[in-house]
Amino acid sequence: MTSPPRPAARALVFYGVAAYLVLGPAYRQVLGGDDERVRNWVMFSNRFEVCSAQYESWTSDGRREPLDRYAVMGYVAPVEAPTSFDLIETETEVLSIGRALCRKLGGAVDVRVWARCARVHGTGWTRVQRAEQNLCLPASPGRKP
Amino acid sequence: MIAGLTRIHTRLLGFEGSTRSVGLMRIGLALLMWTAYGSSWRLFQHETSLDLVVLVSFWCSSTLMLLGVSSQLSTAAAGLTQAVLYHYYGIHLDIEAYHHHHTYTLMVGTLLLSMTPCGRSFSFDRWLDLRRADRDGRAPLPEFGPLWALLLIGLQVSCIYFWGAYNKSHLSWFNGARMTHFTMKFYLGSELPSGTWFLALMTISGAGTVLLEYLLAFGLWVRRWQIWLIPAGLALHAAMYVTLPVSTFSATMWLLYLSFVDPELVHRGVDRMVGAQPRSG
Prior knowledge:
By secondary structure, chain A is of the alpha+beta class. Chain A contains four helices and four strands, in the order αββαααββ.
């Protein structure tokens, strides 16, 4: 199965390439280098703009009811909803959908939301809303949009 | 110590075997080149004279590589053409489609393959040699040769797994969050199932992916583990291909798995499939 190694050139190529394959990615992944000519292996590491959100309807006596945002907006099934409604990408969209729910429900309603958006590191989530504000109230200058 | 290192050195650089593995790889990589680049490099799709040179080089080298005409040379030319696509169009001109991990894997696989006698099997070169051998009354060149570069292809696969797993070694992969992001982005939208089964599924698949990648990085070299790890790795890439936009990456990795399989096993497998007599010796 084996035969004696050939000239030094072969050894040079073999060990040179092997060292580059093994250690090359460390330049960017460990040492933080930014020369794109050296390959790093960071597949599936980009941050997706995705948020999960649970909307609630709060009553004056403190009861909280989960809101089916699809039903409120009149979508019989999620596939009927536009992509921008189905996949919420940012906190701004979380709040904008909340206000759309307020308008659809009408009257003196109190709609709040628990929401978190994706991040790559740490726990993978950033909590962006904790049901602390009634989205149906007009936005005041001091409040987040 | 020195004797041990010398023995390893001799085994690595003197590694030889049947050339059928590399012959199959040559055909597969040429087809993958067409899949990855073919639709962007048709004859009418050029704006500069460099485009035209790359275009002609791409089609000529990959076609000759596929057919096995001057196989090592055409494979080297195909690899260098991909290097131009990756480094000039991808990195220098910053065209994202050309500097992805899947185009890099294809390029490195092709370049390393050109350092093997990849035309000794399943090629026009082989057919020509058989005809000449018949005419001259000599034995044809054996389907056998130095395969040290095949070890480098395997090493590249291992490094992809190791550094890929290293990059995922943080909490968000082990608590299911990253898998949840993918599932939301491509399938569920922002409405997540409420049951604990969903979190469990995301956690198991996220942590399992990272652990499997670490295991594949080293375990694929262990012959007695291959019977489990090769199907597990193939299944991982199949799952990625079906569920995520990974382009030619899965198919390329499948093909490069041939570098871990004993070349003699591949040779005998082909013999068995075509009903040929196993070769003696």
